[in-house]
Here is the input.
Amino acid sequence: MATPPTGVEAEPAEQQTGTQEPSASARIVQIRERIDEIDHALITLWQERAALSQEVGATRMASGGTRLVLSREREILERFRVALGADGTQLALLLLRAGRGPL
Here is the structure.
């Protein structure tokens, strides 16, 4: 009688990488490891940026300033648009929202 699986079982290399060719599969695994490292760094930086942006807003409001500085938001949107195109604009909008909350 077979026992039920106790956890996630390893998948064949083809299912993990989309290829059965060993050297290509190994390279894909290597590239994905670097992608995972970059993702971790991006998440950490995202969280740090959001916290700093929230601190700027709280400091500004506590001193009688406005909740937002639209010229600063436009500057950030433009920086990301120039560097990354239309996707950059969308990324900047998400970053701004993470720091200040929804409008």
User: Anything to note?
Assistant: The helical segments are 13-17, 22-62, 70-84, 86-100.
